[in-house]
Each structure stands twice: as structure tokens, then as C-alpha cells.
Structures
1.
Amino acid sequence: MDKKKSHHISDILSAGKQTFSFEFFPPRTAESSEQLLQSIKQLSFLNPSFASVTYGAGGTTRELTHELVVKLQHEVGFSIVAHLTCVGSSKDEIKNVLQKYQDNNIQNIMALRGDPPKGSSNFIQTANGFGYADELVEFIKFNFPKMGIGVAGFPEGHPESIDKRKEIYYLKEKVDAGADYICTQLFFDNNAFHNFREMCEKENIKIPIIAGIMPITTRKGMERMSELAKGATYPSKLINAVNNSADDSEVEKIGTDWATNQVMELIENKVAGVHFYTLNRSKATLQIFKSLNLNSN
Ligand SMILES: Cc1cc2nc3c(=O)[nH]c(=O)nc-3n(C[C@H](O)[C@H](O)[C@H](O)COP(=O)(O)OP(=O)(O)OC[C@H]3O[C@@H](n4cnc5c(N)ncnc54)[C@H](O)[C@@H]3O)c2cc1C
């Protein structure tokens, strides 16, 4: 039984208010499940515009992603975006995944190509699969025309791309294939976002661009993130502050303050929305909402 009617992200965005949304990943252990449940409980009080659930590298969390997506929409009452990648799946397999989402009234997909396997720099297209995300967008639009579709954008450039202009041209192909909005890779320097938005405008990309923000909370997390979010760089001022900090509680304060300032500046510059990479934790996001007196929906 649905607690709340699910919405298309495009409808939420076109209502004109800046959106605030959260990203979660499917937990793999009982302990991390508990941690996520606690975070969701806390974050649900913030009444997010929507939440999204990632799809593990190489499609490794297909079932877990599905489980969490359905739970968040039907039990918690969030409007949900399910991430989906082309890695290791044929068109038929992807069609089955999409059909299951449609049957469960999940109305939004984040359509992604996915990364090459660890240790390899080349993405390998699965037999009868997709080579790039725009093909997945087109496939969803054709087979599941009622699905809302988000796509990824990279303010500092995608790591495989050597020509930023061309990259924006390829992004436009995803938009023309039917994407409703763009959500960006995380970034720590707002200038990267503003330049990216300007390049998109010049390429006649008119759909909303949501900014991805991740508050740093530990030194280890910061190192791990530079491996995962390839292409996102840390400004030297932030690196120096973290290097000079005594412990992780100081890192958490530095990271949260940094993200708070980023969000404040983005709001002032009329960003369509801010998407928080929560890493299944709530403290930093709660603090940012409190400091800025943010209000979703
Ligand atoms: C908001 C967000 C959420 C994400 N969520 C997940 C997730 O849940 N699970 C996961 O595994 N990964 C996730 N990723 C990572 C993403 O899968 C990788 O960054 C991947 O390498 C690129 O995906 P894409 O959809 O941008 O690919 P594409 O848009 O296909 O682009 C991939 C590369 O190919 C280039 N390109 C595109 N079209 C063409 C063309 N026609 N000819 C030549 N080159 C082309 C692009 O410029 C780019 O360099 C996420 C990224 C972001 C920003």
C-alpha cells in the first residue's frame, strides 16, 4: 500500500521550487542495513523532494537495489529514482528489470552506462546490450514511455573524455533521446558547476540540472571518494584544512561547513536542485538543512 503518491521527478522540478534529494546505496550486511534504516528515519523528517538508489558497479546489486527502491517508495513514502546501468546486461535483461519497476509503480529511472570493470579503462558492451547511456534512454522511452528519466553530467569532465565540448555534445544526445533532467557528479568547487551549466546552455540543453553534493565526513571517506567519483577534484584549500585537522570529528566539521557553503551559493545562483550523496548517513545532511533552514516539497 503506497504511503504517498509517487511523482515523476520532472513534475516535481517543474513545480518551480528548488528540489532537495538524497542518494542511498543498497546495504549488504545486517549492520549496514541498520545504519541505513536509522538514517532514513532521520532524513525522512526533512521531507525530501525525492530519493535515489544506486545500482552496484557491474550491476552487482540488481536485486538489492530493487528491494530498497520498492521499500523506500511503498513503506517510507519517498518519490523514488532507481539507478540502472548497461554493464553486463543484454537488452532483454534490462527490459525485465524495467518491467519489474513498472509493475511496482516505480516511475523514475536514472539511466547510466556504468563504469568499465575494475582495472580496465575500456567499457565493454555486452552482446545485445548498450554501448552508451543515450541508447538506454532511447530504449526506456520507446518501451516504457511513462517512465521519467534522469541522466548523469560531469562538471569536471567524465574521466574517459578528452574533449569537454564533445562530451557536452554527447550529453545533448541523452537529452534528445528523452532525458527529463541531469544530475551531476559530486564536485567541491562551485565554479566547475557554473561553467558546466553555461556550456550546457550554449549547447541548447534546456532540462533542469541538479547539483550533486557530498559532505566529507572522514579522511578515509575522502580518499575512497576520489577513487569512486573519478574526475572530481578537491580544491587545495579543502585538502589543506583536512590535512591540518587533528581527527575525524574535525574533518567532519570542515566537510560539513564546506558543503553548507556550496549549497548556499548554489541556491543563491538558482540551481534547479541539490542532490545529497548521503553515503547512507544522516548527520552531515541534517546539519546542512538546519544551518540553511532548508525546506523541501
Ligand atoms: C549522478 C550519478 C549517478 C551515478 N550512479 C551510478 C550507479 O548507480 N551505478 C554505477 O555503476 N555507476 C553510477 N554512476 C557512474 C557512471 O555509471 C559512470 O560515470 C560511467 O562511466 C558513465 O556513465 P554515463 O551514464 O555518464 O555514460 P555515457 O553518457 O554513456 O558516457 C560515457 C562516456 O562515453 C562518452 N560518450 C557518450 N556517448 C558517446 C558516443 N556516442 N560516442 C563516443 N563517446 C561517447 C561520454 O562523453 C563519456 O566519456 C553515476 C554517476 C553519476 C554522475
Note: DSSP finds eleven helices and eight strands in the chain.
2.
Amino acid sequence: MNLQWNPIEMEYKEIGQNKKTLEKIITGESPALIIKNFYNDDSCKTIAQRIEAKTFENNQKIKKIGVSLVSFISRKSEYFIQADALRKTICELFSDLEDPRKKIHNALQVLFPEKQVTIAVENGKKYACGVIRLHELGDFAPIHRDSARFEARSFDVSKFPIQLSTVLYIQQSQKGGELVLHKKSWKKSDEKYRNINFGYSKNVISDCNQSVKIKPNQGDLVIINPIYYHEILPVRANRRITLGLFLAFSRHGDKVVTWS
Ligand SMILES: O=C(O)CCC(=O)C(=O)O
């Protein structure tokens, strides 16, 4: 039996030959699927420069561009208003470039040929599509898990039993900022370990005997099962920039829906 818990790596051009691989991420047999060279390096640099310019324009630190559902758990109508309000801002970052969100949708369509992949819609309202997260020097994300099924019960996306997370690395920090994946999935009784602000105390993984640290390159796309605990180690050099998008589906349903 293979006791190693290692990520699976493949080149972007190979995804069509590896449709079954995602199953290993869903079941937790493997911690992550890393699709190497998914998005063009020069386009990543252009997006990073546009974000840099934006920060100066605003003359303030921005940690996020776009809308993330988790910030609107109890403010559903506000979520949809903000999702619409920020669509243009996100689109502008990708103007004249291949839209990485479309590329992610196309890749998912290859991985789920029997389903239709679309941005989630609820009562005619479109969910947000993609959130850009900036981690500056010293920033980190504590141990956490993502579960719309548990956290976002008033939203339709919570009805899908299987949720995955895609992360595109637009800029990688030269030092630190690794993603650590723990081989332990969330259960309700873990809520006692929850931090007041965000994430969980280290005690939540005290019975976890396998963790893996990954540091994908700029342009790589990573797919994880976010019900498994994960964390981002402190950034020790330049800014780390990612684009995140969730997807969810049911085994026998005909749809894969995405949102952020
Ligand atoms: O940025 C990463 O590497 C992982 C993102 C993450 O922790 C999350 O989306 O919950």
C-alpha cells in the first residue's frame, strides 16, 4: 500500500488524458492536483503589474480584489449586489489577455465531459466569479477548511455534496507563502477548535499524521478538496497573488457550478 500522501502533478496539455485523476482529490487519496504551466507567465506578470498599479492608485493596502462568499454568509442579497458591482473590476485586470477564469472553466469542462460547467446562478442572480487574494510580507492564512455546504446554508451552492477549490498562482512569493495541506478532513466536533476570527487552532490537527507543503510556480493551477485542513505559511519576501474559484457538483447531477 502506498502510504505517501503526495500531490499529483501534470502538465496542462495532459489534462485530457487524466480525467480520472480528480477522483483522487475528491476522496482525499491525494492532497492536490497541480496543473503545471496552466496559464501564461507573461500574462501572470501583466496581471500582477496591473494589481500593483491599482494599489498605488488607491494609496492603500488591498488584500483582495473581487468578492468572496464567505465574507457574506449572513448578507446574501449584499453578496449578489457586490458580485455584480465588482465584475467589471475583475474583467479589467484580464483585458486583452486570456481570461484565466474562462480557462479554468474550459479545463473543468475537459475534466467533467459529461456535465455542464457554468458560474452558479440562483433566482436569476449570478454568483461572483473569482477572487484575487494578495498576501504581503508577513501575511499568512491559519489552518482552515472551506465548506459552503456547512457555512453557507442559505445559498444554493451549499446543496451540492462535493466541493473543490481551484487556485491559480499569478505571482509566487520568492520566500515563504507555501500551501500546507493536512490529511485530515473537517468534522462538526472540530468546531470547538475554531478561532474567533478565522481558522482553527493547531489542536485541530493534533491527530493528523500526514501533511504536505507545496509551492506551485507562477502560472500553475492547483485543485484541492478544501474540506481537508490547509494553511498558508507566512510570506517572507515579495507579494503572493492568487486567483481562487470554487466548484461544486453531485455525482449524478448534470452540472458543475463555480463561484467565489
Ligand atoms: O492560496 C492558496 O495556496 C490556498 C488558498 C486557500 O487557502 C483557500 O482558498 O482557502
Note: Residues 15 and 111 are 7 Å apart (CA to CA).
